[in-house]
């Protein structure tokens, strides 16, 4: 089985409503359809890389190619974990987590997107809570970072609800104009005091630990 060689593909994170898992080819097809149908109001750009400015077919193809590519570049020193988010067996979006030199820094960063029809239902908060549980409770992370472009109020609200604190800003050129990103940071202690009262389970993790650079999960 492929998980004998790359166990990351067998990782599962579950909450009362959601399942997060590395996307299968069928999941990628569903994500491509979601992206083609739209991820946000075209008048705003919530991403540093404006991949959603492409036509629907281009958005769909970019989702497939990008997600397949992250596995080919995976190393314990620099990894990117994209997780398809499913609700009642239906793919609704993506929650990802990245890290560089995790064995040393114990720091992760997160990002996400949801199909338009699935927004405003609390899914974004629940899937972020799920990946933070994976980071802090299972991998031994000490800090998590996130960011929200100006105007991306839903993402900022999720961060604040989960206990992140302000961590400065950065200015980028997006669509030929300056746009500021607000950055947030969450320590292990802040996560513990703000974590949601959710039953979260993780399966398939043990063989993945060397791939995350997380064999030593001591405090």
From TrEMBL:
* Source superkingdom: Bacteria
- Leader sequence range is none
Annotated N-acetyltransferase domain ranges read 18-189
Q: Which GO terms describe its molecular function?
A: transferase activity
Q: Which Pfam families match?
A: Acetyltransf_3 (PF13302)
Listed name of the protein: GNAT family protein
- Keywords in alphabetical order, please: Transferase
The answer on whether this UniProt entry bears the keyword Transferase reads yes
* PROSITE patterns with a match to the protein in the record: GNAT
Q: What is its EC number?
A: 2.-.-.-
Keyword NAD in record: no
User: What Gene3D superfamilies does its record include?
Assistant: 3.40.630.30
Instruction: Extract the coiled-coil ranges from the record.
Output: none
Q: Could you read off the lineage of the organism from its UniProt record? A: Bacteria, Bacillati, Actinomycetota, Actinomycetes, Streptosporangiales
